[in-house]
Design brief:
The structure is a homotetramer. Helices cover 79% and strands 0% of the residues of chain A. By secondary structure, chain A is mainly α. Chain A has one domain: Orthogonal Bundle (Tetracycline Repressor, domain 2), CATH 1.10.357.10. The longest helix of chain A is centred in the N-terminal third of the chain and has 26 residues, at 13-38. The radius of gyration of chain A is 20 Å and the shape is elongated. Chain C binds chain D through residues 35, 37-38, 114, 117-119, 121-122, 132, 136, 139, 157-158, 160-162, 164-165, 168-169, 172, 175-176, 178-180, 183-184, 188-189, 192-193, 196-197, 199-203, and chain D through 35, 37-38, 114, 117-119, 121-122, 132, 136, 139, 157-158, 160-162, 164-165, 168-169, 172, 175-176, 178-180, 183-184, 188-189, 192-193, 196-197, 199-203. Chain B binds a DNA duplex through residues 9-12, 15, 40-42, 50-54, 56-57, 60-62.
Chain lengths: 213, 213, 213, 213
DNA sequence: AATGAATGAGACTTCATTCAT
DNA sequence: GATGAATGAAGTCTCATTCAT
């Protein structure tokens, strides 16, 4: 579905998926280590377990690999996030759980997140748009959870701001790890961040409670 | 002072500073556009207004330019931040003012910030350490303001967390501009972020007020 | 066998040998003309009949070419010298024949010898050691012939000295050609050098004859 | 006198000589270490104790430095050799003394000799001719000593051959030092070489003695 | 489909030489 | 006479991409 933006000379769709997944896995390993620009296509091919010739049977340019990687990363975040969200029973507790899940996920995907921060800009306009849209979707999911789970009204704008804040606080755990992970365990980090997020909604909650009353 | 880590064949220190500033200016322009890796040393020389030979009279390698750029950016942030901080008269209002100043600064330096996010990783161990230390210093300044201006006690850990949050919320305005700057004016963004930051300290403030009483 | 010290990205060993031989041939042509330092890698590639990219598929650095050339030259000398030596029937005549063959060989390889004299010093420690060892081997072969073919005893030291003298008298024909080849035909040169070499062993020979008697 | 082939913008002849001697000294130091091609003009200037600009006041091109160096080396050999030769009282002992002196000189000037072997070829036609002529002169001096000191007649050709042999046996001590200087002390080397040289003239000497009788 | 040898544009960097001060 | 900053041609090497097998 999503990978179809990238042309391949190989017709067998199943094979294309297999090879591209090998490629994504190999590329992420390398990008984590040395970044996109310092990684060569030969290295990607080798790490993926096939030859440079074969690599180019499945992509057209090196940038295609970057796109596949970015796409795969967001795809993974999307899946996991979706699985964590349950809008059937909205509640503040529920909101907290989603945020907690998201933070745990970001801990797992620290290095992938760093790749995104560093390399997305290297994508060409079109593919960049596409990847950024996926990112927006993800923030949108958080935003929806906020709006749905809060007991009181919150402006669209404020909801978006909170969603963005949560979003990057998740990333921050990864890309500022050399500072944060010295001072906090993951659990502490999550607890304090959620604590402050909830605090920042306090007054409104009071008002909301008044409304309820 | 800070540039002295990079060797130059030119002896005249004053001239070195002039040329390096030209170089930093030119490089930032180009890095904003196409990033460090896609910018060639020839382009940097040309944009700086001198020949490739002259460029290499003032640096040893291309990476030196990146270091100079990163160093200059943090230097600028440091100066401006320092100027904005007044610890003589600590008060919550004062804290708000510092945060506001910082956000305005981050608006001005959006693209520089993006460069840092994308390219710092390309620095070699030593220079990276140096640059990251400067970053830590900056967060440290925010942390100190928080501790000093809050009317109540706050744990070292929490102060650090808040400082980090503020720090990256400033960056976020720049590197997520395609989202945020569609929904917020700068003033709105600053207002809402400060609003929520203050809220998140609410309970404590109440306690503090109780103490005062 | 000997070329294996130099890494190649190309796996096919047979092809590596073919290309390297092209390269050695091309490089020797150019080194004769302008020396190692004044010859560019592009020129070597062109003279060898392939592109600069291909050149670097078979070597890592320009110095590798020099090593390959030095190695090939000594390899050739070695083979030819070995073929000329017959230790089954040691005799003074036999010794004279070996020396003669060696001088003829040095005549053929004049320019290669000049290359060695001028450029070996440019090799890095390791490869230089390797090449010099090969040279020692060659002198060792001459030394062995001397010891074996002389009818009388000769000290190890003297044998080594004679071998070294013969060795460089062979070279001298090439690197002092602008003097010697004006005054001597090759045959004359060989005759007179052998004459004097034999004379210098005269007394000993007499002693030897006495012994025999 | 000899340096006058090289143009200088500086008029003061005395100064020119001073500066050029500094230059030659500095350059030899560097050429010993890394050869002509790997030494930069900047390094030569620095080692000589003045600036690159000044260097170019006294020469026109880098090759001029090489010429000055080669010229100076032969000049020195020439002077020393001349001092050692005394044709007033020709005798075999006298010949031996000259050869001995020459070998001692070559021991002192080992590295300079290596420079000559490696770099003369880099000189342009004209200057090369000039330097080679000086070399021929030196061999000529040896030749003359041989002819004069030998008690018997020797053909012009043979005298030249012997002179050339002696000439390069002197060099050999330096450029094959890693072999010879392990096996011989300087004294041993000289003794054995002279021994064999004298032996090679043995028969003739006998004849000569007959004549005398 | 898979391979890997071949290609060459283009990157970084050096360094001999000049010339204004 | 001395200086050293400026220049840019030219060198080495890399690597994305192609294509014959």
């Amino acid at each position: 579905m999503t990978q179809n933006q990238i042309l391949s000379s190989v017709k067998n769709a199943e094979l294309v998926e297999i090879r591209r997944n090998q490629m994504i896995k190999g590329a992420i390993t390398l990008f984590k280590e040395k970044g996109f620009h310092r990684t060569t296509t030969r290295e990607i091919a080798k790490e993926s377990g096939f030859s440079i010739g074969t690599l180019y049977e499945y992509i057209r340019t090196k940038e295609d690999v970057l796109f596949l990687v970015c796409d795969a990363i967001y795809e993974q975040v999307h899946e996991r996030l979706e699985a964590a969200i349950d809008l059937e029973n909205p509640s503040v507790t529920n909101l907290e759980k989603v945020i907690e899940s998201y933070f745990y996920l970001m801990d797992e995907m620290q290095e992938e997140v760093v790749i995104m921060y560093q390399e997305v800009k290297s994508l060409k306009k079109d593919t960049k748009e596409y990847v950024l849209q996926k990112e927006r979707d993800m923030v949108g999911m958080l935003e929806k959870v906020i709006v749905t789970c809060l007991p009181h009204e919150i402006s669209k704008q404020d909801a978006e701001l909170m969603a963005n804040n949560i979003f990057i606080q998740g990333h921050m755990w990864g890309f500022r790890r050399w500072v944060l992970q010295k001072q906090f365990t993951l659990k502490e980090y999550i607890d304090r961040q959620i604590h402050y997020l909830m605090e920042s909604l306090a007054i409104d909650r009071t008002i909301a409670k008044d409304k309820e009353a």
